[in-house]
């Protein structure tokens, strides 16, 4: 019985081992899993490989862009090592220093004198200039002029400087004419016709203060309107366009390059003062219309620079060598007549007492200089020609006298006031001589008289007082 049971247990164990082996022997070979495909039949695995490859390329490009950005950002670093806009604001009053005695009088006086000295520096090269000018002042009145980077905003400061420009323009160019055009809502509008009466332009500019800037500017429309206004101008007068452009784009109805080509054919010279970044089409416009000179496109730096750029446009432009022709201009010199009974003037149709009568047609006008409405004769006074002549022969710049030099006199030759004494309290030395000497007559003038002589008189009192043979 025992032997039989042992054999049965052995048989059971063997059969169990066989049963455990049988599943291993009966397992089918591993099947190859086919590539999954989407509904359109595209291989998803190969497509995933392409995506991974694209991701690697994008990451590589991103790393390269970060390296380039870091290299470019080095140009934006300020003096402290951070970005320029993170630097501490340096105000003008923070730069003021005092001497050992706490006195700022000499410092303030030297700063004022330095500013007047810059104002007295003018271009004294005797060029042949067109003293009879016709200028179209084009102002940007688009939405970009509402920016407040100029106080109180661009529009208000532009109008104020334009008013000052009209005053100075007719003071320096009394026989010239101006017209005013604005760019607004994609159109160009004429706000003041071409004339030599400054009051008409001043009234138009003062009325523009009440208008809000709107829309986009159209440089092409403004140039086409200015071109139409300058076409009837005679050949003896220069044709100029001064544009104040504050936008970064122009909404034009056509090809502006054709308009620029027409301006070149008509010999119309354009100058642009930019209030924002440089615009490529403005640079091309100034370069082509000024015989390849791109210096007529200027970008302002601050409020003072804006005023200086306006003042540069007051001086007549030199005549190019291409324009070699000379023209005799017929002008009339009327006499002023006083009347006891008011009569109508032909220029404004207003009742006035007296006026000027044209020597050609005896027509009455109320103010000079102007063009006779009946016979188109230019009516001026002899003083107008004299004020325009100084552009052709400008007065030489006075040289500053060295502070170490021995001074022959203590008073200014023109105003007879004593020269101010600006000393350094610590070293007791003169900061400046405060004397400016004419090279021809060797007379000394103060800085106030120097500025007045070069900006108003245009004649040296010392040279004029010398006896003539």
UniProtKB/TrEMBL annotation:
<dbReference type="Pfam" id="PF04056">
    <property type="entry name" value="Ssl1"/>
</dbReference>
<dbReference type="GO" id="GO:0008270">
    <property type="term" value="F:zinc ion binding"/>
</dbReference>
<dbReference type="InterPro" id="IPR012170">
    <property type="entry name" value="TFIIH_SSL1/p44"/>
</dbReference>
<dbReference type="GO" id="GO:0000112">
    <property type="term" value="C:nucleotide-excision repair factor 3 complex"/>
</dbReference>
<keyword id="KW-0227">DNA damage</keyword>
<dbReference type="InterPro" id="IPR013087">
    <property type="entry name" value="Znf_C2H2_type"/>
</dbReference>
<dbReference type="GO" id="GO:0006289">
    <property type="term" value="P:nucleotide-excision repair"/>
</dbReference>
<dbReference type="InterPro" id="IPR046349">
    <property type="entry name" value="C1-like_sf"/>
</dbReference>
<dbReference type="GO" id="GO:0061630">
    <property type="term" value="F:ubiquitin protein ligase activity"/>
</dbReference>
<dbReference type="Pfam" id="PF07975">
    <property type="entry name" value="C1_4"/>
</dbReference>
<dbReference type="GO" id="GO:0006367">
    <property type="term" value="P:transcription initiation at RNA polymerase II promoter"/>
</dbReference>
<dbReference type="InterPro" id="IPR036465">
    <property type="entry name" value="vWFA_dom_sf"/>
</dbReference>
<protein>
    <recommendedName>
        <fullName>General transcription and DNA repair factor IIH</fullName>
    </recommendedName>
</protein>
<comment type="similarity">
    <text>Belongs to the GTF2H2 family.</text>
</comment>
<keyword id="KW-0479">Metal-binding</keyword>
<comment type="function">
    <text>Component of the general transcription and DNA repair factor IIH (TFIIH) core complex, which is involved in general and transcription-coupled nucleotide excision repair (NER) of damaged DNA and, when complexed to TFIIK, in RNA transcription by RNA polymerase II. In NER, TFIIH acts by opening DNA around the lesion to allow the excision of the damaged oligonucleotide and its replacement by a new DNA fragment. In transcription, TFIIH has an essential role in transcription initiation.</text>
</comment>
<dbReference type="GO" id="GO:0000439">
    <property type="term" value="C:transcription factor TFIIH core complex"/>
</dbReference>
<feature type="compositionally biased region" description="Polar residues">
    <location>
        <begin position="34"/>
        <end position="45"/>
    </location>
</feature>
<keyword id="KW-0863">Zinc-finger</keyword>
<dbReference type="GO" id="GO:0006357">
    <property type="term" value="P:regulation of transcription by RNA polymerase II"/>
</dbReference>
<keyword id="KW-0234">DNA repair</keyword>
<dbReference type="InterPro" id="IPR007198">
    <property type="entry name" value="Ssl1-like"/>
</dbReference>
<dbReference type="InterPro" id="IPR004595">
    <property type="entry name" value="TFIIH_C1-like_dom"/>
</dbReference>
<dbReference type="InterPro" id="IPR002035">
    <property type="entry name" value="VWF_A"/>
</dbReference>
<keyword id="KW-0862">Zinc</keyword>
<feature type="compositionally biased region" description="Basic and acidic residues">
    <location>
        <begin position="54"/>
        <end position="64"/>
    </location>
</feature>
<feature type="domain" description="VWFA">
    <location>
        <begin position="134"/>
        <end position="313"/>
    </location>
</feature>
<feature type="zinc finger region" description="C4-type">
    <location>
        <begin position="358"/>
        <end position="375"/>
    </location>
</feature>
<dbReference type="GO" id="GO:0005675">
    <property type="term" value="C:transcription factor TFIIH holo complex"/>
</dbReference>
<keyword id="KW-0539">Nucleus</keyword>
<keyword id="KW-0805">Transcription regulation</keyword>
<feature type="region of interest" description="Disordered">
    <location>
        <begin position="1"/>
        <end position="73"/>
    </location>
</feature>
<dbReference type="InterPro" id="IPR013083">
    <property type="entry name" value="Znf_RING/FYVE/PHD"/>
</dbReference>
<keyword id="KW-0804">Transcription</keyword>
